[in-house]
């Protein structure tokens, strides 16, 4: 690694990390610039293990031994800043010690992701990065083989999604699918039954569905407000619901994903 002390928060070498609390800037900079931000040693470790390449690292003096172990001889510029510079630069205290600007890999083809998968979680149009990250963490921890995201779903490599997922976005195969007419055809061609989680009178209770589940399942989750789109419901082979109690009609989408994935993988 190459240690480069930086004392001015306005130095252009730090532009990748600038004003990360500004949502509009993040949307422009991360996807369009071919970068994403990985925050914390654990997240960066998982990104490196997945073969992702760091463009640079931002840290403070007291974390340099940890950063050296993390990078393990990689030739990466490491910008060393004070706490005050880090706060001025990013807009928040960098409590986790290290951040990395990572080069964004090309997403794999859908056929590649589906080839050896049997249990797939599909996130339709979910915008909240916290929910996306939590859904990925549930998928990784509870045994889903892959995650698919629709064209209007938020970015799994968004800084907050990555952080909430604890880096599991790097260990679960995932890719972005096309519109439902094409995506459903590809899922069916690979032998997947499309099971849509929705509140509908003809929905099958999740425990009943899990008891007689098919060999390959694509479990589709929608937004908390509007639920699944009409297009998603139209291509679904089954509609499934999580039985609720206490006058509650549904769960947070990340919680629902965890329950549903647990049910179909057990």
Rounded average pLDDT? 90
Largest sheet: 7 strands, parallel
Helix and strand element order: EHEHEHEHEHEHEHEHEEHEHEH
Number of beta-strand segments: 12
Radius of gyration: 20 Å
Overall structural class, as computed from helix and strand content, comes to alpha/beta
- CATH homology superfamily name of the largest domain: SPOUT methyltransferase, trefoil knot domain
Poorly predicted runs of 5 or more residues: 24-28
Q: Can you give the helix content as a percent range?
A: 25-40%
CATH architecture of the largest domain: 3-Layer(aba) Sandwich
Strand content: 15-25%
CATH fold category name of the largest domain: Alpha/beta knot
Number of helical stretches of at least 4 residues = 11
Q: Order of strands side by side in the largest beta sheet? A: 8-7-6-11-9-12-10
> Distance between the terminal alpha carbons, to the nearest Å?
44 Å
Overview in brief:
It is built from eleven helices and twelve strands. It is of the alpha/beta class.
Outline the structure in words:
The protein has 11 helices and 12 strands. By secondary structure, it is of the alpha/beta class. It folds into 2 domains: 2-103, Ribosomal protein L30/S12 (60s Ribosomal Protein L30, Chain: A, 2-Layer Sandwich); 110-264, Alpha/beta knot (3-Layer(aba) Sandwich). The longest helix is centred in the middle third of the chain and has 14 residues, at 129-142. Belongs to the class IV-like SAM-binding methyltransferase superfamily. RNA methyltransferase TrmH family. InterPro entries: Alpha/beta_knot_MTases, Ribosomal_eL30-like_sf, rRNA_Methyltransferase, SpoU_MeTrfase, SpoU_subst-bd, tRNA_m1G_MTases_N. One of its GO terms (molecular function) is RNA methyltransferase activity. Residues 37-108 form the RNA 2-O ribose methyltransferase substrate binding domain.
